[in-house]
Amino acid sequence: MNKDISAVLKNNIEYLNSELNTDKNFDIICRTLKIADRQAGFYFIDGFVKDDIMEKVLEFFYGIKAEEMAKDMHEFSHQFLPYVEVDILNNWNAILTNILSGVLCLFIDGYDSCLAIDCRTYPMRSVEEPEKDKTLRGSRDGFVETVVFNTALIRRRIRSPKLSVEMLQVGKSSRTDVVVCSMDDRVDTQFLERMKERINSIQVDSLTMNQESLAECLYHRKWFNPFPKLKHTERPDTAASALLEGNIIILVDNSPSAMILPTSIFDIVEEADDYYFPPVTGTYLRLSRFAITLMTYLLTPLFLLLMQNPEWIPQSFAFIMVKDQVNIPILAQFLILELAIDGLRLAALNTPSMLTTPLSVIAALVLGEFSVNSGWFNAEVMLYMAFVAVSNYSQASFELGYALKFMRIITLILTALFNLFGFVAGVLITILSIALNRTLSGKSYLYPLIPFNGKQLFRRIFRIKLGSQSGRES
């Protein structure tokens, strides 16, 4: 690839045809034409080029006279190309990457450089509200699979010259566009440079799974700690808010979400609805979500502990006791239902949208009513697991939901085996998994609780007026 670009058009065309296999790839087009008295050729990928813009450009080319031709490509682009997004390329690696990215590349006989004309159009879906990150109020737009449109959605919200949007490429074969966004006056510059160095040093063939592949390359986390290091969002307003708080946003082409880092446990449980309502309502929503998240972890292990020690139950709460005969151990019931809930979730994911609601109703009626009547499950167990299943949707992070699920199963098993000591051990394992976790910047996962910062902790727990807030520490 060290071959120099030739001033002879025929040599360049032969080289590109060989590299791009234009005889096999029907969508890579080589079009030859005459500009003034010189032969020219341009390469593009069918489906990416805007036809109306190309027609306008070609009209100017056909109107050029021989005596008007420029002495080099740089002068030619200034005199005869009335288009904004153009670049002069002198490197074959850059030329091949641009062609395969959909940029039109023009070669003219007698010029030893290439003119890249970015008149791409992207096949994409409309900018609509994300299915997962919904809000009761607020904007209804969301990220799409095209990284250029995602950066535009952020620029629309932050009109500051301090906003930096840098593009990098990852993957030997895929050359996936990765965009790093930050606020120059608020970001931790050392952490930002470290992240860019890590991205540039990634040695992979391609980012097969987009953001997840990049995340695994950025941080080789210990497999036994399931708590997420990153927060994912499909909402531009959430990404913009994180940038203004000093965080870094990473966008990956072909992925309709953004990665926010560094991220603590308090960042993950926050949601946009907290800020789209008045402070009192926002505080209530936030505290409710904290409480429900805690209950999804503790409810079933605590119930199992009390069933193993019925003498601990006060007389006023005797109604929580299992009244029917227990045919299957309660632990086995909980574990079967944990698996069944994931099975139903996967079934719903692969069910056509028009059938999702009726099938969900049928599943709830059949599996709920008949599993109790048949003696497989007790009604109390079904009730508590139904609460856990519904409560998992009270927060948007799938990763946090599954982390709590794994911790809940471990606590259930330890409680069944070792009674109270097992319950305490399970809770301690969960606490230590969170406390010993670190953000990507190396700071505490529990900041501002550990290390303690009262002012910041108050703001993380309570929703205060916007005018009273200042930039957060990460």
UniProtKB/TrEMBL annotation:
<protein>
    <submittedName>
        <fullName>Spore germination protein</fullName>
    </submittedName>
</protein>
<dbReference type="InterPro" id="IPR050768">
    <property type="entry name" value="UPF0353/GerABKA_families"/>
</dbReference>
<dbReference type="InterPro" id="IPR004995">
    <property type="entry name" value="Spore_Ger"/>
</dbReference>
<keyword id="KW-0472">Membrane</keyword>
<feature type="transmembrane region" description="Helical">
    <location>
        <begin position="328"/>
        <end position="347"/>
    </location>
</feature>
<feature type="transmembrane region" description="Helical">
    <location>
        <begin position="383"/>
        <end position="402"/>
    </location>
</feature>
<feature type="transmembrane region" description="Helical">
    <location>
        <begin position="409"/>
        <end position="436"/>
    </location>
</feature>
<feature type="transmembrane region" description="Helical">
    <location>
        <begin position="290"/>
        <end position="308"/>
    </location>
</feature>
<comment type="similarity">
    <text>Belongs to the GerABKA family.</text>
</comment>
<dbReference type="Pfam" id="PF03323">
    <property type="entry name" value="GerA"/>
</dbReference>
<keyword id="KW-1133">Transmembrane helix</keyword>
<keyword id="KW-0812">Transmembrane</keyword>
